[in-house]
């Protein structure tokens, strides 16, 4: 259960101000149909994070415990630094045409925007660290939904009130702490 709760919290925090959260806002403003957008985000996230979690679980079969410890520790520290770099949504990431419908457009756009994103990389690392694939994927998916669904329904009102910079700093400190624990905690 620890893997679930940590994964949920980390991804929910990491997603604040992230480009996929901005994409959620853009989709909500463009289509004004919250249910298909939220369901599209859920489907895209489940598929994306299931693949990322599988990669994380697979990595544990390739690396010995000591090498994995160093890779995870340094990766979490790199994530801490990355959290301090603000995201902005690239114009071409919302380019999926409406001919796919609101749901289809959301699935495609969100899945592609999440590729190589902080939360996808975090899912890989968490799955490798906890060796609890299902709990990590469920937790990271819940974290994504906690961060993105309210944006779809409440839109700009949330983004004006949430101090994104403070959330990024808290997330960076958490990732740094995880990295230090991975590197220096007794095996």
TrEMBL record:
Pfam families: GDT1 (PF01169). It is a multi-pass membrane protein. The keyword Transmembrane helix applies. GO terms for cellular component: membrane. The keyword NADP does not apply. Its main location: membrane. Signal peptide: none annotated. The chain crosses the membrane at residues 38-60, 67-85, 132-154, 166-185. InterPro entries: GDT1-like. Keywords: Membrane, Transmembrane, Transmembrane helix. It is found in: Membrane. GO terms for molecular function: metal ion transmembrane transporter activity. Belongs to the GDT1 family. This is GDT1 family protein. It comes from Paenacidovorax monticola.
